[in-house]
Design brief:
The structure is a single chain. The protein is an all-alpha fold and about 300 residues long. The N and C termini lie close together (about 10 Å). The model has no long low-confidence stretch (mean pLDDT about 80).
């Protein structure tokens, strides 16, 4: 079964990537200092025995491998342990992940709704004034830092016009500004990608044959060219998901959005190892799984992979 062999290899690669990433995260976090010392740093007359008691209570006196084993075993069964300061981690991660996923997929949806039609139109009208305008728009979008664009939208729509809330997750309207900000930032690069992929697909010989057979331009563009360029677009979107999650850390801080980025920043400021390790590991697993889904999509989009 070539398909099962292909997918099993990709799944095995994803498993090893998750193990390596989780090990690196666990090791790097423990190089930042001792949380027990930080917790007692504001107290006077702290003794080594007090620090040792805190380390024993938090399990910090165990070896690195024992701590890592307990962490991964708990992660597999959904028991993520307890934060040093905020109680059980699982509900914190669940709430933050739900908020981040909602923002990420809505932002990506906004980007695709705008970038795919614009990219196709620009490719089909190469060299026209519309193509030039779309390229200028995408170049300008790439030049704007995401935090600056978010602040400008906040000043315009929340402070000046008072149409939308500036921050928070109290109502659905609080999702509009961060989603549009991230969506437009993604659109700037996605338009260029779709245009380039479509130009390459439209130059293929089978497209010329399809036109010679008398097929309609709509059929040539959407049924043949767009499908042939789909694998390039899907590949880039899978890679873009990692950048999306990283960029959302800034957007979440600007709009006070209670997502994974905000949770990670708070954990860093408190040196809360369990929350920080769990947050980064869960994000890494998400990125690996998204790329695994992209590999699975290859089987559908490109018949040559099935034959291989």
């Amino acid at each position: 079964m070539p398909i099962l062999s292909y997918l099993s290899k990709r799944a095995l690669q994803a498993f090893f990537v998750i193990i390596v990433v989780s090990l690196l995260v666990a090791f790097a976090i423990r190089q930042t200092g001792d949380p027990a010392t930080m917790m007692l740093s504001q107290s006077s007359n702290v003794t080594q025995e007090d620090i040792k008691n805190i380390q024993d209570a938090l399990g910090l006196n165990q070896s690195f491998w024992v701590q890592y084993w307990h962490f991964m075993k708990g992660l597999l069964v959904g028991d993520m342990g307890n934060s040093f300061f905020r109680g059980p981690i699982a509900p914190l991660i669940a709430d933050a992940l739900k908020s981040s996923a909602l923002l990420a997929f809505l932002s990506l949806g906004i980007s695709l709704v705008i970038s795919i039609p614009l990219g196709i139109y620009a490719a089909c009208h190469k060299g026209s004034w519309a193509d030039q305008l779309i390229r200028v728009f995408s170049l300008a979008g790439l030049s704007f830092p995401n935090f600056w664009l978010g602040i400008m939208f906040m000043l315009l729509f929340a402070v000046t016009l008072r149409w939308l809330p500036a921050s928070g997750f109290d109502t659905w309207s609080g999702l509009v500004l961060p989603a549009i900000t991230m969506g437009l930032i993604l659109t700037a690069s996605n338009v260029r990608l779709v245009r380039t992929a479509m130009l390459e697909a439209l130059s293929k010989q089978h497209i010329m044959v399809a036109r010679a057979k008398g097929l309609s331009e709509h059929s040539v563009v959407y049924k043949h060219a767009l499908r042939n360029s789909a694998i390039t677009i899907v590949t880039y979107l899978g890679l873009q998901f990692g950048a999306l999650m990283g960029g959302m850390v800034v957007i979440e801080m600007v709009f006070n959005w209670p997502g994974m980025g905000t949770l990670a920043i708070e954990a860093i400021s408190q040196r809360d190892y369990p929350i920080l390790q769990t947050t980064i590991t869960v994000l890494a697993i998400m990125i690996v799984l998204i790329n695994l889904l992209v590999d699975c999509a290859y089987v559908i989009l490109d018949p040559r992979i099935r034959l291989g």
